[in-house]
Backbone:
């Protein structure tokens, strides 16, 4: 039975046209699965499903996710992380989806990717945030995307080009614990306790280089762009190219957030 599968060009390039066509025909795709993002059951025969290929140093694992949780993509991980992913497939993923902040509609899902960004000859740890759909202001309906304007109101700065480190946004922070990424925190209302603006379903692995740069600078650069601006980039050079294009087109904001944890 044909499956309601999405096989991205990047995944197809890795597994080959023949295997991709077999998946789409239902020959090698499971009917039921546990979503690699939210860990709840899915059925590729009845609901749109994304293929997610985790690639390590020597092996690869093909996983499945609800299309509303993750787009079809290739995720590069270390072999050690991949072996952990075999036991719990989204352990070790450097790209994941999480529930949105309370101030945006429930259907919005934020994608967060970690990577190193070179600025004036020095590597800085960065998180790139891109929602899976337009973000409307609370209480509004209809078309339109207020994602960037709302972030600017929170203190993020428009980035016409990535030529300098953006200003520090006080009151916000990036929570790193036990070497894993847990959340992006924002200041609570009226000076109250910080709340999670973005929180990982499961703590995310980051590379040793990313963690070392975060500890060195004691801050993380957070770049945000509206849906369709960045996409899922499997390599840091491609991620930088996408960031530069988004900046040039006026579709990128950024801030430097203090590091919380180690």
Residues:
């Amino acid at each position: 039975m044909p499956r309601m599968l999405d096989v991205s060009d990047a995944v197809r390039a890795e597994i080959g046209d023949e295997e991709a066509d077999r998946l789409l025909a239902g020959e090698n795709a499971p009917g039921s699965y546990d979503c690699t993002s939210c860990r709840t059951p899915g059925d590729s025969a009845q609901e749109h499903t994304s293929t997610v290929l985790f690639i390590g140093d020597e092996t690869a694992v093909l996983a499945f996710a609800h299309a509303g949780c993750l787009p079809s993509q290739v995720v590069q991980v270390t072999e050690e992380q991949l072996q952990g992913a075999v036991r719990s497939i989204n352990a070790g993923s450097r790209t994941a989806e999480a529930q949105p902040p309370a101030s945006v509609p429930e259907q919005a899902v934020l994608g967060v990717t970690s990577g190193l960004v070179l600025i004036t000859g020095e590597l800085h740890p960065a998180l790139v945030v891109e929602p899976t759909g337009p973000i409307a202001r609370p209480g509004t309906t209809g078309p339109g995307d207020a994602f960037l304007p709302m972030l600017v109101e929170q203190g993020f700065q428009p980035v016409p080009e990535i030529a300098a480190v953006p200003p520090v946004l006080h009151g916000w922070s990036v929570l790193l614990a036990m070497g894993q990424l847990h959340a992006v925190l924002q200041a609570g209302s009226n000076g109250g306790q910080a709340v999670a603006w973005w929180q990982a379903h499961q703590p995310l692995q980051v590379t040793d280089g990313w963690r070392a740069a975060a500890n060195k600078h004691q801050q993380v650069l957070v770049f945000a762009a509206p849906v369709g601006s960045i996409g899922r980039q499997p390599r840091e050079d491609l991620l930088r190219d996408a960031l530069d294009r988004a900046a040039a087109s006026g579709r990128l904001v950024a801030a430097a957030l203090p590091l919380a944890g180690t």
In short: Confidence is low (pLDDT under 50) at residues 88-107. Residues 2 and 25 are 4 Å apart (CA to CA). Residues 236-248 form the longest helix (13 residues). Residues 96-261 form one domain.
